[in-house]
Each structure stands twice: as C-alpha cells, then as structure tokens.
C-alpha cells in the first residue's frame, strides 16, 4: 500500500523506529494528541457567542448605547435563543449526514477542510462588529452555516480514535481525551473574554484564525488509520464474549495446574492423566483458535454500516434518547451560564465569563471519573444513571444558593459540572466506540457516533432555544427545574441497559466462581483417588 503524505512526513521527521510495539504506541499518542487539539479548537470556536451575548444585550432594555441592535429590546433574550436554535438545529441535522460522509471520505482531508471552513465562518461572524451589521438575518444565516460546518468534527475524530484504539477498554483513556470539550470551552471563554468588553469582533476572529492554523497542522501530521503506516490494531469481540473466552482459557490453565499438582503423588498415574488431559487441552485450544480466527474474520470488514442497520444495534436507541436530554442540559449551561451569572450577580461580561470556567473544570474531572468508573464496573449505563441522578440535587443547590458568595458559587458550579458533563462525555466517547465494536464493520464508529450525537444535538438545539423565552417570561429558576426534569428522564432511558449490564456482570461473576469451585472439586477428588491407589 502506498503511504499517504502525512504518514511519510510523520515517519520521516517524528517517529523513527522499527519496533512494532513502540511504533504503535507512538502513533497512538500522536493521534490522541492531534484529535484532542482538533476538537478542543472545534469547541473553542463555539464558545464566543455565549460570551458575547452579555455584550450584545446587557439586560437593560433602556441602555441603547451599550446594547447591539437588534438585541436591544424587550425580546432580546428570545432573539439570542433563535440564534442558538439556528446553530444547534442545523448542527443536529448535519450530524446525521456528516457521519455518513465521514465513513466514505479521507478523514484527514475531511477534517482539514471542515475545520478551515469553521474558522472562516467565525471570522465572518466577527466582521459584524467592524462593518456595523445590525441585521438579525445576518446572524441567523452565519449561525446556520457555522452549525453545519461544526457538525463535521465529532464523527470524524471519533472514527479516527476508534480505528487506532480498537476495542480495548477505553473508558479511562476516552475520559481523559474527552477533556477537549472542557478545555475548548475554557480556552474559548478566556479568549472571547479578553476582547468582549471593548471589541467583541475579535472574540470571533481570533478563534477563527486558530481554526485555520490547526487545520494546516492536521493536514500534514494526522495519520488516518494504522494501515497507512503498516500497523494492525485488533478489533476484538464485545466484553461479554471476551469474558467467555477468558473463562475457557482459565479453565484450561487450571486443568494443567491440577495435572502438575497430582504428579507429586503418583508419576505413573500422571502419565495416563496427562495424556488424556493433553488431548482435551489440544481440543480446547483448537476450539479457542477457531473462535479467534472466526472473530478476526468477522472484524476485518471495512464496508461502512448503514444508518438503518446501526439503529438496531442494542443500546444505540437508548443512549441516543438519553443523550437528547443530557446534551440539552449540558448545552444550556454551555451557551447561557455566563449570561446567567452576569444577570443574577450584576457583573461585567468579561468577569462572568471567567467565573463560568469553574463549571468546565468540574466537567473535566467528571469526565475522567465517569470513564474510570465505567472501566472498573464494566457498565457505562449504570455509571451514567448514577451521575445523572446526582446532577439533580446539584442543580437545585446551584439555582438557589449560588448568589450567596463567590466561593459558594464556584463550588456549586464545580459540582454541577462534574455530574452533568460526566455522563455526556462518557456517552459520546467510550460508549459510542464500544457500541461500534459489537458489529463486524470497522467503519461503523462514525455512523453510530453520528446517530447518538446527532440525536443529542437535537436536544442541544431545543434546550438553549427555549432558555431565552423561559428567562424572559418566567425566572431563571424555571430553567434549572427544566434541567432537573431532563436529567431524570435521561436516567430513566437507561434503565433497561443498566439492568442488562447488571445481569451480564452478575452472570460473569457466578461463572467464574463456579469454574473455580469445579476446578477445586476436581483437584480434591483427584488427590483422594490417587491416595487410595497408593495405599492399595
């Protein structure tokens, strides 16, 4: 196979080794780093609008000098919600199609082009400040186009990660990797916050320029798949099947140990038993090898999976509906938290932007802990339910006690971010990649992630879109109650998945215990039989 431009460049200047294991480790690290940077930049480019909202409308309808028409009237928050709906609505629609396109495209070209387009659209949005554009339709159209461009990122980066890391346990790795969401939010908030009070146009233009720079880096450094550098990554069977295979191998090992121990009693008897057991061992090994060969044959298909087929993969529908509500809550805070802090505490937009970073810090820690917990208990659904239920009281506390002091506000933000973003990050990363490993196609990750994240993005479009009218006609507390209900419904969506995970893990534990007991019984009976023969 002829090597791509990026693979030649990387192996010529960055990775020079002939050791396959070291080569694979280094390439994985590079892919992990590059995809992390890419999606950090994607998230960074989404954040300026949430920061600039407080500058477009500061909450005082009579302050026409400091507000930006047409966001200077009594319906200003509703207009801002329309922009959110335009962005996230087209993002959700685009997600279903971009996942389909990503699986059928060169992902390096796909990411480079789409990220540069995102950068150009950010620059266009920022130009409204310099050109004195006050048309609502201009802002709506730019948000629609930006939403479509942004939807290209997630299916592509997750497909690349899935191809490089196979079906190894990814909860902890993806938990760390998914920090790109929080890091991107914090970076976007910081950059936008620097300029928002005196030149909000630069809040868009600077992230746009960074998008274009990173797209060039990706073009030259990203290696799309292991085969481009003559490496192979195993795409193994799902966890429950791997546990069955592990149980068989443990049984074989215990049989050999039994034979070895019984040899200390009577060597003559051992010869007979070892010959029979070795035939049994060879039979089991041949069965194990045939199972491995059949599994490898089922995982070597590179044909993309269809959207309709992906919907029938167990767990896809449940996690998609769950993410609809989970992402809705997460993106209400992503897009409106600086505005909420600025309005309720009556502080400048730049200060509220910096304070809201604590929510993303909590989300970063929550993402790692959710991934680690999922790996330990081998149950993504149970992990998500626990986090979602704990998010409800944290939202209640944030709504009613955040204005007491800055320290309490920061602590409650951290706690809310921890429980809200933990399950969100787990579902869009580790869960989506693991579901893709349950089907023979190696090219299923982009489609499955597009379905799950696309459904979630519909929620992300609806949640922020109704937040403005709710805060206009009711109070901010009504927004928090809406989030509590959303997290509860999200947890209910995963009850069947969690029950199946509990049964699978329970049966696996029982199977291992029974296997251990049967081997102990066999050893005891064998020793007693040998002793009787020696005495006689």
Helix-strand topology string: HHHHHHHHHHHHHHHHHHHHH
CATH class of the largest domain: Mainly Alpha
- Based on helices, strands and strand pairing, what is the structural class? mainly alpha
Question: Counting H and I runs of at least 4 residues, what is the number of helices?
Answer: 21
Uncertain residue ranges = 237-300
What gap, in angstroms, lies between the N and C termini? 70 Å
Mean pLDDT: 78
What is the helix content?
A: over 70%
CATH superfamily of the largest domain: MFS general substrate transporter like domains
Q: What is the number of strand segments?
A: 0
What is the rounded Rg? Answer: 27 Å
Keywords: Membrane, Sugar transport, Transmembrane, Transmembrane helix, Transport
Transmembrane segments: 25-42, 85-102, 109-130, 136-160, 172-196, 202-223, 311-333, 353-373, 385-408, 414-436, 443-466, 478-499
Region (Disordered): 270-302
InterPro entries: MFS, MFS_dom, MFS_trans_sf, Sugar_P_transporter
Written account of the structure:
The protein is mainly α. The chain has two domains: 5-234 and 301-493, MFS general substrate transporter like domains (Growth Hormone, Chain: A, Up-down Bundle), CATH 1.20.1250.20; 239-298 and 501-530, no CATH class. It has 21 helices and no strands. Helix 2 runs antiparallel to helix 10 (200-221) and helix 17 (380-401) packs antiparallel against helix 20. The model is unreliable at 237-300 (pLDDT under 50).
